Amino acid sequence: MTREQVEVAVVGGGPVGLMLASELALVGVKVAVFERRKERIAQSRALSVHPRTLEILALRGLAERFLARGTPLPTGHYAGLDTRLDFSVLDTTFPYSLFIPQALTEALLEERAREVGVALHRGYRVGGLWQDAEGVRLEGEREDGTFQVRARYVVGADGARSAVRTLTGIPFPGTDVTSTQMLGDVVLAQPPPGPVMSRTSPNGGAMLVPLGDGVHHRIVVVSPGRQHVPLSEPVTLEELAGATREVVGTDFGMHSPMWLSRFGNETRHASSYREGRVFLVGDAAHIHMPAGGQGLNVGLQDAMNLGWKLAGVLRGLAPVSLLDSYHHERHPVGARLIQNTLSQTALMTQFNPAGMALRDTFSALLTWPPVNRVLAEQISAFDVAYPSPPLPAPEGLKVEPGVCGTRLADQPLCGEAGTSRSLYSLLHEGKWLLLRRPASSHVELPTSWRGWTTPLTAELSREVPGLGAWSSLLVRPDGHLGYVSH
Asked: What is the pLDDT of residues 45-79, one digit of tens each?
């Protein structure tokens, strides 16, 4: 048996686990990732990175890596409705969704993890978990024997069938599969024009996008006559082509499948994201119909939220009570995710006259810009604001209701002597940012905050709605506004 001791053990080496591990290693936390697969998966269930996710990557200086490999799309979709969501109106440096296969996202995040010193162990399957007042013990199997790990904290990033969640006993209530759909990554002899094709009729629904390799297309089909086929039954090319013809009138001459899969609408939400020294992130905490491409994105945002808090506690920069805020902040986000994907499921799987009428009504509503923007902000996670402060306000600063807890968009900061830096560039180290306005009275942080905070005297280049005449701002490591003084 091999034995290892770390500060944090992350179970699950997909994008979410790698993101979390990188956040911890960034500040010197000894972290190891234990992944049951021996190699990265080649298939890509997720195909896009949404605007807020691009922002959190930019907060750590990683966005350019993704932008160099992906394709910006200025629109998204809600339930595959004919009226697209317009991301171009959003207040962000990234007013688009980035089309990038999940396999490439994972490769880029693994590259980052190795750069900051994360130990990645592949072929490790966790089978036992015990925790006490001092830490957690993991045991499991690997190819050449067994292993044991002792960690101060454990994070389950191991997906929908999470071993960590099961072994910890965290309830995972929800609903079983009631509808199944098909997807295929195939070659088309006669591909349709345009980057995205979406079609819905009483015969079903279909969405088709090119995968960016110049060869394959992804097609997803909901067939009324095939919605109750069990997940265990493999999809055949003939089945996929036949369902596509029923909806679109052609199968585009599809051939040479690279991947065929059946997925369902099982929906579950962990009752708690924390049990003692064990945390859940991503699909280990919430699963749902993959509507709107949100699952991977919300998981990466979970990882960002937990990462800086766990790092702060482990480095003695914050009280252990900060860890409670992870569940308090992210569980409501997961609940809203479940709500909006259930809503989209109803719109995507009902092909009777009532269901088609409902789709027409929603699509018409989305032509009204205020409605379109609300759902665009929901899908992109720009509507996320945290109502309660994660820590007591330092002396001289306070919580401004309705403003503190909201995300700050990146913008140039106008420094002394005419210097200029972007807001997000000052958060690359995963620290808080104390922004002091020139020619204003300045807050002096307590000693306990100074090792975790970057101070800067500068002016925002544009006003923040509701903020008023501020003199100092304390910005969280995840880019949300923490505290303010006037």
From this structure: 889 999 999 999 999 999 999 999 999 999 999 99
Same domain, residue pair 186 and 163: no
- Name the token pair of 367: 């032509």
Collapsing DSSP states into helix, strand and coil, what is residue 352? Answer: coil
Mean pLDDT to the nearest integer, 13-24: 98
Per-residue model confidence (pLDDT) at position 139: 97
Q: What is the DSSP string of 375-401?
A: HHHHHHTTT----S-SSPPPTT-B--T
Any residues with CB less than 8 A from the CB of 232 and at least 6 apart, and which? none
- 324: CATH: 3.50.50.60
pLDDT tens across 94-109, in order?
Answer: 999 999 999 999 999 9
**What's the number of domains the chain is made of?**
3
Measured CA to CA in angstroms, residue 33 lies from 155, 315, 462 at distances of 9, 19, 41
Instruction: Indicate if 132 and 18 belong to the same structural domain.
Output: yes
Q: Measured between alpha carbons, how far is residue 444 from residues 97, 452, 459, 473 in Å?
A: 40, 14, 18, 12
Predicted confidence (pLDDT) at residue 418 exceeds the cutoff of 80:
no
- Find the radius of gyration of the CA atoms of the chain: 23
Strand 145-156, strand 278-280: pairing? parallel
**Same domain for 14 and 118?**
yes
Tell me how far apart the alpha carbons of residues 428 and 436 are, in angstroms, rounded to a whole number: 19
Range of the domain at 229: 180-264
Region for 398 from its dihedrals, namely left if φ exceeds 0, alpha if ψ lies in -120 to 50, beta otherwise: beta
Q: Are residues 152 and 273 in the same domain?
A: yes
Alpha helices in 232-383 (DSSP H): 237-248, 295-314, 324-349, 353-365, 369-380
Q: Give the span between the Cα atoms of 382 and 287, in whole angstroms.
A: 20
Pair 300, 159 in one domain:
yes
pLDDT-derived band at 179, boundaries 50, 70, 90: very high
Percent of the chain with pLDDT over 70: 100
- pTM here? 0.96
Q: Which two tokens stand for residue 330?
A: 């992210």
pLDDT at 303: 98
